[in-house]
Specification:
InterPro entries: GntR_C, TF_FadR/GntR_C, Tscrpt_reg_HTH_GntR, WH-like_DNA-bd_sf, WH_DNA-bd_sf. By secondary structure, this protein is mainly alpha-helical. It is 65% helix and 3% strand. The protein has twelve helices and two strands, in the order ααααββαααααααα. It starts with 5 loop residues before the first helix and ends in a 5-residue tail after the last helix.
């Protein structure tokens, strides 16, 4: 089945205001998912443009635009007279939301969930301690709001994950550490995936709700040691939930 119709490929505006065709998300995603599935292994050349047009049923213009998107995310690299080569996985922007989505069922091959947890182990306890000293009243109120949303949606994994991600995003921001604040936006997509995988894999989220609430209280009391201890307890729960998530996606340690 073709991913883009002939009519869509040929649609143009007048010559005075001609625009580049919009890249169809499913064309870019189809190539990306084939890369993630090792149909095109790292270091190997992609088929020629004409062959890609035939494979994916689209015009050369659409293929070129799709390859530009993939190159911007580190999946491929194009060189004149050489063609387009698949980059090593270490070069992929794995914190990009679309890249995470393309990885999809192949996520277990990247050990990404474990890597995210290691990063959180390093960052979040320190961020919680700084937040206990530096968080504004509004930031504490925002954390409390996110915690209440977690509590009220503990039986709904999607809503629970949204609130959980918001909690941790605000926590990093509330540290008032510029590097942590930058990391907050950088790891947002990866954190969303990791927390969602964990939250749908466990049946009981009461422990998580409890410790998140205790962290909010520690921040209110400006208890730095207590805040760090709560963050470490949250991460201990994350280890447990990660094991459940990995089992759920077919990967036991």
């Amino acid at each position: 089945m073709k991913l883009e119709s002939t009519e869509e490929q040929g649609r143009t505006e007048s010559s005075s205001s001609e625009r580049r065709p919009r890249v169809r998300r499913n064309v870019t995603a189809a190539i990306a998912q084939d890369i993630c599935a090792d149909r095109y292994p790292s270091g190997s050349p992609l088929p020629r443009e004409n062959d890609l047009c035939e494979l994916y049923g689209v015009s050369r213009t659409v293929i070129r635009e799709s390859l530009k998107v993939l190159e911007s995310k580190g999946l491929v690299r194009g060189k004149p007279r050489v063609g387009t080569t698949v980059c090593d996985r270490d070069e992929w922007n794995i914190l990009d939301a679309e890249v995470l989505d393309w990885m999809g069922p192949y996520i277990r091959d990247f050990d990404l969930l474990g890597c995210i947890l290691e990063a959180r182990r390093t960052i979040e306890p320190a961020a919680a301690e700084y937040a206990a000293e530096r968080a504004s009243a509004q930031e504490i109120a925002d954390l409390d709001k996110a915690w209440r949303q977690m509590r009220d949606s503990s039986g709904e994994p999607e809503s629970f994950t949204d609130a959980d991600v918001m909690f941790h995003t605000v926590l990093l921001t509330a540290s008032h550490n510029q590097v942590f604040r930058r990391l907050s936006s950088a790891i947002h997509a990866a954190l969303t995936y990791a927390l969602h995988a964990s939250n749908i894999a466990v049946e009981n989220r009461e422990d998580a709700v409890l410790v998140h609430g205790e962290l909010v209280e520690a921040l209110r009391m400006r208890d730095k040691a207590g805040a760090r201890e709560c963050a470490n307890r949250m991460l201990d729960l994350a280890v447990r939930d990660l094991a459940a998530a990995e089992k759920a996606i077919g990967r036991s340690k």
